[in-house]
């Protein structure tokens, strides 16, 4: 039986990922889905880091419009080496504060 995809345990329902799911295998341009619509919304951004090298977080892209249960953006994984990564969504409000980021562990293959 196919295992049911597991959603990342995001602390805030208004800053959450619904795809990629936990340990999803990604390749190429990946459509990222979820919600980024905290109160007093300012922007949200994607970041990633390599689990294999205990890397720093790397900025991917910033978006200025809130999204509720929809397409948040696209993460192009084609330039990254295959391996284990963490991907996170950070949603920032007008005061510069943000709830704990929604983080998910993924696998990049080519």
Can you give a write-up of this model?
The chain has 110 residues and is mainly beta. The protein contains no helices and eight strands. A five-stranded mixed beta sheet has the order 2-8-7-4-5, with no helix packed on it. Strands 1-3-6 form a three-stranded antiparallel beta sheet, with no helix packed on it. A hairpin with a 7-residue loop joins strand 4 (41-50) and strand 5. The chain starts with 14 loop residues before the first strand and ends with a strand. The model has no long low-confidence stretch (mean pLDDT 95).
Give the secondary structure arrangement, pairings included:
Layout: E1 15-19, E2 25-26, E3 29-36, E4 41-50, E5 58-63, E6 67-76, E7 83-93, E8 102-108
Parallel strand pairs: 2-8
Antiparallel strand pairs: 1-3, 3-6, 4-5, 4-7, 7-8
Helix-strand topology string: EEEEEEEE
The largest β sheet comes out as: 5 strands, mixed
**Multimerization state:** single chain
The number of helical runs is: 0
Poorly predicted parts:
none
Measured between the Cα atoms of the first and last residue, the distance is 25 Å
Helix percentage range? under 10%
Question: Which geometry do the CA atoms define?
Answer: globular
Please tell me how large the radius of gyration is: 13 Å
| SS class | mainly beta
Instruction: Give the mean pLDDT.
Output: 95
Record field, number of beta strands? 8
Residue fraction in strands? over 45%
Give the strand order of the largest sheet, numbering strands 1, 2, ... along the chain: 2-8-7-4-5
